[in-house]
Amino acid sequence: MAVKRTSSAERLHGREKLLAQLQGAAMTGKTVLVFGPIGIGKTAILRELQRRVAAAGRPCGYASRVTALGDVTRALGDAYPEVSAHERTQRSYRASLRMAVEVRPGVLLLDHLARAGTGLRGFLRSLQGTGLGVLLAGDVEYPRDRARLRELRLAYREEEVPPLTPRQLRRVLEDGLRARTLPWPLGERDRAVLLDAAQGRPGRVVAFAERLADAQYWEDGHLRVARLTGDVWNVETARYLA
Questions:
Q1: What local confidence, expressed as pLDDT, does residue 179 receive?
Q2: How far apart are CA 82 and CA 25, in angstroms?
Q3: Exposed e or buried b for every residue in 12-33, given b needs 16+ CB within 10 A?
Q4: pLDDT at residue 115 above 90?
Q5: Rounded to an integer, what distance in angstroms lies between the CA atom of residue 128 and that of residue 142?
Q6: How open is the CA angle 104-12-191, to the nearest 5 degrees?
Q7: 141 and 74, same structural domain?
Q8: Assigned domain for 1 exists
Q9: Percent composition of the chain: helix, strand, coil (DSSP 3-state, to 5)
Q10: Do 184 and 120 share a domain, yes or no?
């Protein structure tokens, strides 16, 4: 059975004010740490900002996961394709990218910041003052995660992505359900259980909706809620530990 994936726009309900704040910071050359638990919507926010920045005609680079300096270099290279890396050292390439930023400041979106060694931190700090806006997204499940990100000392300011309200989550779920055909109707009681299990995380609701079309999560017309939520949480755990 073909499954249509839920678009990022369908999980951005209730994020308008935050998106405007982050876009304003990025466009004025600020560095912001965006943090929150897995599934809270950080990637959807960064992808929407990527769309908006590109629509405004500004250079924009995106890295889906950041663990090393090379991830940042590739993202910045995507934003400034006119700078060639051919037959050059990485150090020389990064120096030319920095000059391109000074001429035409853009935005760098770094998702799932997992690790940041000395070289990565040094390069990002060298870009401060060039006009480049940098948004760093980090997964924060526990207080120690936030402390670890703060210790990197890379951000000008911090923005926590808040949980959505039950009403906003329901809208995300209904949008997701319209995109697929279910083996059986989803009852109101199961809807309520799934929304409660989401704990304010739209990404978790999207993951629930994507799996509802799979017959393995149904039995005699009833949703196997424990199996569905367990599988989603296992995926989140794997991402957190990666």
A1: 80
A2: 25
A3: bbbbeebeeebbebbbebbbbb
A4: no
A5: 29
A6: 165
A7: yes
A8: no
A9: 50, 15, 35
A10: no
Q: How many domains does the chain have?
A: 2
Report pLDDT digits (tens) over 24-38.
999 999 999 999 999
C-alpha separations of 194 from 38, 46, 74, 169, 226 in Å: 17, 25, 38, 10, 10
- The answer to whether residue 111 sits within a structural domain is yes
Residues 23 and 140 in one domain: yes
Predicted confidence (pLDDT) at residue 132 exceeds the cutoff of 90: yes
Per-residue pLDDT band at 11 (split at 50, 70, 90): low
133 contacts 159 by C-beta, under 8 angstroms: no
Number of neighbouring beta carbons within 10 Å of residue 92: 11
The tens digit of pLDDT for each residue in 159-203 reads 999 999 999 999 999 999 998 899 999 999 999 999 999 999 999
Please tell me the predicted confidence (pLDDT) of residue 212.
96
* E runs forming strands in the chain: 31-36, 60-63, 107-110, 133-139, 157-160, 218-219, 222-223
Specify whether 195 is located in the same domain as 151.
no
Lookup: tokens for 148? 């670890």
Parent domain of 71: 9-160
CB 116 within 8 A of CB 152: yes
User: On the CB side of 228, how many CA atoms lie within 13 Å of its CA?
Assistant: 27
The pLDDT assigned to 13 comes to: 82
* Contact present, 115 and 144 (Cβ < 8 Å): no
> Within a domain: residue 4?
no
Residue 36 belongs to a domain with what CATH number? 3.40.50.300
* Residue finishing a domain among 141, 160, 179: 160
pLDDT, position 3:
35
Residues 29 and 145 in one domain: yes
- How much is the pLDDT for 4? 40
